[in-house]
Amino acid sequence: MFQMSNKIGRNDPCWCGSGKKYKKCHEEFDDKIAYIKSQGHEVPDHSIIKTPGQIEKIRESAKINIAVLDYVAENIKAGMTTQQIDDLVAEKTAELGGIPAPLNYQGYPKSVCTSINEIVCHGIPSDNVILKDGDIVNVDVSTILDGYFSDSSRMFCIGEVSEEKRKLVDVTKECVEKGLEMVKPWTFLGDMGQAVHEHALKNGFSVVREIGGHGVGLEFHEDPWVSYVSKAGEEMLLVPGMIFTIEPMVNMGTDKVFCDKEDGWTIYTADKKPSAQWEIMVLVTEDGHEVLAY
Questions:
Q1: Are strands 99-100 and 136-145 parallel, antiparallel or unpaired?
Q2: CA nearest 47: which of 2, 103, 96, 92?
Q3: Is residue 41 classed exposed, middle or buried when 0-12, 13-18 and 19+ CB atoms within 10 A define those classes?
Q4: What residues contact 31, with CB distance under 8 A and at least 6 apart?
Q5: Residue 92 in contact with residue 68, Cβ under 8 Å?
Q6: Confidence band for 52, pLDDT divided at 50, 70 and 90
Q7: Residues whose CB is less than 8 angstroms from the CB of residue 137 and which lie 6 or more positions away in sequence, other chains included
Q8: What b/e readout covers 79-112, taking b as 16+ CB neighbours within 10 angstroms?
Q9: Which tens digit of pLDDT belongs to each residue from 233-266?
Q10: Gap between the Cα atoms of 112 and 117, Å rounded
Q11: Average pLDDT in the 90-104 region?
Q12: How far is CA 53 from its chain centroid?
């Protein structure tokens, strides 16, 4: 994955756009990555590492993403349709100057994903789907602002939710928090993934294997693909400037899932038991991490 900047002279401008000489900016950084790659690890190339200017633009996109989810939180209730949630997202995103990233992405027909109960992810909003007392629903919002992308989701408990469902929702959020604690520069994605998986298993739940997180910022979905059933010390090296999502899909029953053959998008649990997901977007910093959207 990593390509050494051997075409850049030590006195040439750095590849990151800082205007500094390479030797005063990212030469030591690149040498460290190259050494870790030589030890057999997967490492990021420069296309995955965001510059300070790009990070600031992504932060602005994330502010809209958070505001849209806040707006949904203020209005979501039993009796409303998932299409009404889609309308809220489209309305608020446009009001704030953004564009809903899911709309027409690879043919997806709506501005948001609304995944209820046994729907794991990619639920398509509809006038025919009405939120009921006792439902749990994931609302997954993704935003484009001036060509920069942000992505996060939240779980909502509608009315009186069963103790089992509420535990699933709470533990899934805890899984994200456990994973986030492991996000530090010069460690590995697998450190985060193992922390997520262990916490879910400890509470009697399973984690979906086939669907994971992703890099984000310059595109809706970028490298790396992010697993939540990985092992510490494995997967891609984390370095400052990387941005990716932590969004485990935690199931009450089996980790097996299937895709709706008719719409080609909606993912269900194989045993029709509930699933929950929280998604945050995180930046790896020099001394830890920064949550950009939640």
A1: antiparallel
A2: 2
A3: middle
A4: none
A5: yes
A6: very high
A7: 76, 82, 114, 115, 116, 117, 131, 155, 156, 158
A8: ebbbbbbbbbbbebbeeeebbbbbbeeeebebbb
A9: 999 999 999 999 999 999 999 999 999 999 999 9
A10: 17
A11: 98
A12: 21
Cβ atoms of 217 and 149 within 8 Å: the answer is yes
Query: One-letter amino acid identity for 117?
Result: N
- Two tokens, residue 190: 């697998």
HEC letters along 104-156: CHHHCCCCCEEEECCEEECCCCCCCCECCCCCEEEEEEEEEECCEEEEEEEEE
Q: Is the dihedral of CA 260, 149, 129, 168 positive or negative?
A: positive
Residue 291: count of CB within 10 angstroms of its CB: 15
Six-digit token string for 277: 């997901």
Tokens linked to 213: 């997180």
Band of the pLDDT at 17, cuts 50, 70, 90? confident
One-letter amino acid of 204: G
What residues pair up with 119 in beta bridges, in sequence order? Answer: 268
Q: What is the pLDDT of residues 146-191, one digit of tens each?
A: 999 999 999 999 999 999 999 999 999 999 999 999 999 999 999 9
